[in-house]
Design a protein that fits this description.
8-stranded mixed sheet, 34% helix, 7-stranded mixed sheet, alpha/beta
């Protein structure tokens, strides 16, 4: 029977502290609070800890825990005394606890804000990053409970534990007394602690995916006894791909005397397999999957690819089945691709894994491919194959993941893997939904700084099987934010492949200047027009005429590439008839050799009905220009091309030498060919924009400091205002007061319920004035006639007042106000919102109905740097109106950029400001005038990107 003290110890269980985490080696573990029910688990855990680790924990030999110890370590109030455990398979592998202490070092309660912290990690799990993960979580718990500082005493010989603390990135102080190292560190996250946390997150999640994509041994569970079926097909695909590791076929219905299936060792259960199994591919009915997962977990399988359907895509019952699947797998430390997955492929020569339903293994290459839908995955693989990407060693696939319902492993995880994967140069992703837009944007920005990331993003609602955070942002806004992060956003699978092949085969252009050469004037003009439409700067096309030989193409391309005013070249080619006309292979060799002489500029080919040219351009891997010394590039008449003179193909590459250069990271330089000018130019335009982003990302700018910002005063005012309610739109006076603390001055407007009140207000403000109707249906709609400007005296004001009331109704409906006139300029609008999925977003555009109808707004993630503010102003299509369009006076854009930066700082410093709108903001020749402002306050949404590392909850 429990004593009163025991009952008092059992405060409400903090279930929100439970979390799944990925450890340093890629395995998963569960972190949760320790409770009174964990006594047996704690004792069992302690018995498996070495004497040395016990000595480091208790500073003395401590072979076993006493009953008093067990009680102390399992009874917590979850406020002043907290214990967390890391578990795998339900058993403890590590523990951490804190005890709140006062200035004298004795147990205390709030307001004491310091606590002692201590860890113990089972020896078998040391070195896996368990203690680092526990430190992140116990620190978050402590901050939630009002603890601001941890203290830890560590023996000098316990270097591993000292390293856990010192590497965490917190501000700390170290001292040495009585043979013990005392560490004290603040728990407030720092830039360094956040960087450390994200670096650990990247390494851990990348390794968790690597375990799935590069297993040493594979078991296929659900292999049918008869040919056909999903399991049997996948088994054959893995075997035929040449996977060098052990392969096992598993089906509980196999006869006991069955030893092999299709030449693969057969077993009735994963438990029966003698050796380790790194990856299990599960292809059994959904109702049998839990038993298979339990078997795999008990056998020590590291990861699962679940092909089985019947989960969240099938409705509420399947959704709950999917949650249970993820919880069970994570309990054993396994990660899942799927369920309802198409599978995974890895073409690396030491892996050769085709654990998918694709009947053929793609040729190896440098493109990483991610899809959620199996049908889209098939379409992408076939497109790459038809375009040459799947049949050349350069533009084939490095790894392919089709994640199905992506209940666990998502595009974010795979992006972590591809970020530093040396086998992948270009990433292509088809995303039907974004589960965590804030994290994806952060990872995309980092990845795009290292290698191109091309994305097709679904427009409609998320598929049934996908757990997606709700976002209030329009699709166009999310797309703009992805572009800001360096993502190359395209709309179709065709554009995805077009851009991917160019980026995999050619260098990035250094600018938008394009040369066009070819043997068709009309095709050249079409290409020229498309370049203009895509914002490129083409030179007039060079028409070589239909009689052009391979040598003519070679010379023209060489001259264009040598021109310093050219950043890229588009070659247009149509079939020609005549004895001197070049064949496909001859023309391809001429173009490739000319391009090889200037490897820093991209070359694209637009071909019309030249069936063999695309294949010929992809087939030759050599970049040796000397091969044309006597042929197409030589002076004189062209001669027929003979097959025996062809250079080696991708299967037999030419060794690198000074005379035979090989571009870094490719092994060869292949020229992409496109069947239409618009497709080639669109791909080139995306490459140009991405190259510009890469150059700008090298110097992203800084978030400026302003001496007149009163951050503390703003926080106090927000606190007072929020005491009125959980969410409120502030009044005009409070809005102006809060904005004033960040240097944003709103022009005063006085209510004018009557003509006499309007006249009195005008005399207070000083003529000339404006009279405005602020009713919701007229607000910011000058085009409807609800505004009268430049009223110079009482007579004009009263006449305008009468006109408004006659047109739109009584003043009670109009809500008229009087405001002093601002200098003439361009009317703009500035908005900032905190979206629960994407985070804080700053938006800018011109005011007025036309801009709203066109959706001409630009967006940036907060905090905005000075360079981003400059680009934000220039990103809208109507930006020329700010810079003197058609002889108008240019306005003060530096003042506008400063206003944007101040609003960004306000929202970033105070996440309680969940929405702010400044409209209109009149940008004059000198200065800006904010004429209207609305502001909404609410408790800030939780930010999981600033908390400890966790996997999505299930």
């Amino acid at each position: 029977m429990q004593s009163p003290a025991d009952r008092q110890d059992r405060h409400e269980y903090p279930a929100h502290w439970e979390a799944d985490v990925v450890l340093r080696d890629g395995g998963a573990a569960r972190i949760r609070p320790i409770t009174v029910d964990d006594a047996d688990r704690l004792v069992s855990f302690y018995e498996q800890v070495s004497d040395e680790s016990k000595y480091y924990r208790f500073f003395a030999p401590y072979p076993r825990l006493s009953a008093k110890d067990v009680h102390r370590f399992t009874h917590h109030d979850f406020v002043d005394r907290v214990g967390l455990a890391a578990t795998i398979g339900g058993e403890f592998i590590a523990t951490v606890r804190y005890d709140r202490i006062g200035p004298d070092g004795r147990p205390a309660s709030a307001p004491a804000d310091e606590a002692e912290v201590a860890f113990l990690v089972q020896d078998a799990h040391q070195g896996r990053g368990v203690a680092s993960a526990l430190l992140e979580h116990i620190a978050a718990v402590a901050r939630e409970r009002g603890i601001r500082r941890f203290a830890a005493e560590v023996l000098p010989a316990n270097t591993k534990m000292i390293k856990v603390f010192t590497d965490a990135g917190y501000t700390q102080k170290r001292s040495f007394e009585d043979g013990v190292v005392r560490l004290e560190f603040d728990l407030e996250p720092t830039d360094r602690s956040l960087a450390v946390q994200r670096a650990r997150e990247q390494r851990a999640e990348a390794r968790s995916v690597r375990r799935l994509l590069a297993p040493g041994s594979v078991a296929v569970v659900g292999v049918g006894r008869a040919p056909g079926g999903v399991g049997r097909s996948v088994l054959g695909n893995i075997r035929d791909a040449g996977h060098p590791g052990d392969l096992y076929a598993v089906n509980k219905a196999f006869p006991e005397d069955l030893k092999e299936v299709d030449g693969v060792r057969a077993y009735r259960s994963v438990r029966d397999i003698d050796g380790p199994v790194d990856l299990a591919v599960v292809a059994v009915p959904a109702e049998h999957v839990p038993a298979v997962v339990a078997e795999c977990g008990e056998h020590g399988v590291q990861g699962l690819v679940v092909l089985s359907a019947g989960y969240a895509e099938s409705g509420p019952e399947g959704r709950e089945r999917q949650r249970a699947l993820v919880r069970l797998a994570r309990a054993y430390g396994m990660r899942i691709i799927g369920p309802n997955a198409f599978g995974v492929i890895n073409t690396a020569p030491d892996v050769l894994l085709n654990a998918s339903l694709a009947p053929e293994m793609p040729r190896p290459g440098r493109i990483g491919l991610f899809t959620q839908s199996g049908a889209i995955g098939i379409a992408l693989l076939s497109r790459l194959h038809r375009r040459g990407g799947g049949v050349t060693g350069v533009t084939g696939v490095s790894t392919f993941v089709s994640a199905g319902n992506r209940a666990d492993v998502s595009g974010n995880d795979v992006l972590q893997y591809w970020y530093d994967d040396p086998e992948t140069d270009v990433v292509l992703m088809y995303l039907e939904s974004l589960g965590n837009p804030r994290k994806f944007t952060r990872l995309a920005r980092r990845t795009a700084a290292a290698k191109p990331l091309v994305v097709v993003q679904g427009v409609g609602s998320a598929p049934q099987g996908h757990a997606v955070r709700a976002t209030r942002l329009p699709h166009a806004t999310v797309s703009a934010l992805l572009r800001q992060a360096g993502v190359i956003r395209v709309d179709t699978i065709t554009e995805l492949v077009d851009a991917g092949l160019l980026l995999a085969r050619q260098p990035l252009p250094t600018g938008p200047r394009v040369a066009i050469v070819g043997n068709s004037e009309s095709l050249g003009v079409l290409t020229y027009d498309r370049c203009l439409a895509e914002g490129l700067r083409p030179s007039p096309p060079l028409d070589l005429t239909t009689g052009a030989t391979a040598a003519d193409f070679h010379r023209a391309l060489s001259r264009a590439l040598a021109d310093e005013t050219c950043d890229a070249v588009v070659v247009t080619a149509i079939p020609a008839i005549g004895e001197g006309s070049p064949g496909d292979a001859e023309l391809a060799e001429a173009l490739r050799s000319a391009a090889a002489a200037v490897p820093g500029k991209p070359v694209l080919v637009v071909h019309v009905e030249l069936g063999g040219l695309a294949e010929a351009l992809s087939a030759a891997a050599s970049t040796a220009p000397q091969a044309l010394a006597k042929a197409p590039g030589a002076e004189g008449a062209a001669r027929p091309f003979h097959p025996a003179e062809r250079l080696p193909t991708a299967a037999t590459p030419v060794p690198e030498s000074p005379e035979n250069p090989t571009p870094e990271g490719t092994g060869s330089r292949l020229i992409p060919a496109y069947p239409a000018a618009e497709r080639a130019v669109r791909a080139l335009a995306e490459a140009v924009k991405y190259g510009q982003w890469r150059r700008e990302a090298a110097d992203p700018g800084k978030v400026p400091e302003y001496d007149d910002i009163d951050e503390k005063g703003a926080a106090e005012l927000i606190g007072v205002l929020l005491e009125r309610g959980q969410g409120l739109t502030t009044g005009q006076a409070e809005t102006c007061e809060l904005l004033e603390k960040y240097g944003v001055h709103v022009r005063r407007a006085l209510a004018a319920p009557t003509p006499d009140a309007a006249a009195a207000a005008a005399r207070t403000l000083g003529y000339p004035v404006a009279l405005k109707a602020t009713a919701p249906h007229l607000r910011h709609r000058a085009d409807l006639g609800g505004v009268r400007l430049d009223l110079a005296d009482d007579e004009q004001l009263r006449r305008a007042y009468a006109e408004l009331t006659e047109l739109f109704g009584p003043s009670e409906e109009l809500r008229p106000v009087v405001q002093g006139m601002a200098p003439r300029g361009v009317d703009t609008v500035v908005r900032a919102v905190i979206d629960p999925a994407a985070g804080a977003v700053l938006s800018f555009g011109l005011a007025g109905a036309a801009s709203q109808l066109l959706g001409d707004m630009a967006h940036r993630l907060v905090p905005v740097t000075d360079r981003e503010a400059t680009s934000l102003v220039r990103s809208i299509r109507t930006a020329p109106l700010l810079f003197g369009w058609r002889g108008s006076t240019p306005v003060d854009t530096p003042a506008l950029e400063e206003l944007l930066l101040r609003v960004s700082r306000l929202v970033d410093d105070h996440p309680e400001v969940v929405a702010v709108t400044l409209e209109p903001v009149v940008v004059a020749q000198h200065g800006v005038s904010v004429l209207g402002a609305t502001l909404r306050l609410a408790p800030p949404p939780a930010r999981d990107d600033l908390g400890p590392r966790t996997l999505p909850a299930y």
